[in-house]
Request: fold
Amino acid sequence: MTDPYANGVCTYGEDQAPGAGCIKPTGHGGAHLVTPGDTSDLDDDRLCDSEFPGDDTFVGQLCTRLRGHDGDHSCNASIAGTDHSRRLVWP
Ligand SMILES: [Zn+2]
Ligand SMILES: [Zn+2]
Reply:
């Protein structure tokens, strides 16, 4: 059986909002399928459950990529009290 996500997830649309981005595999055909960035209506069991290990600002944010993805975990975390967000990436 071939894992369609063996080459990772398409990065189109990432960074627009927390959790946003195309959820199809890298190199997919057809249109991108971009999630709007609110992951609350995605099933938890489709998403990676790795937690950000923590730094001086953030801790415990959940990875917003699909379960079983290749490469680093990542999510966008908003910085409390500002309109800014930072992309968290961890191995
Ligand atoms: Zn795509
Ligand atoms: Zn992850």
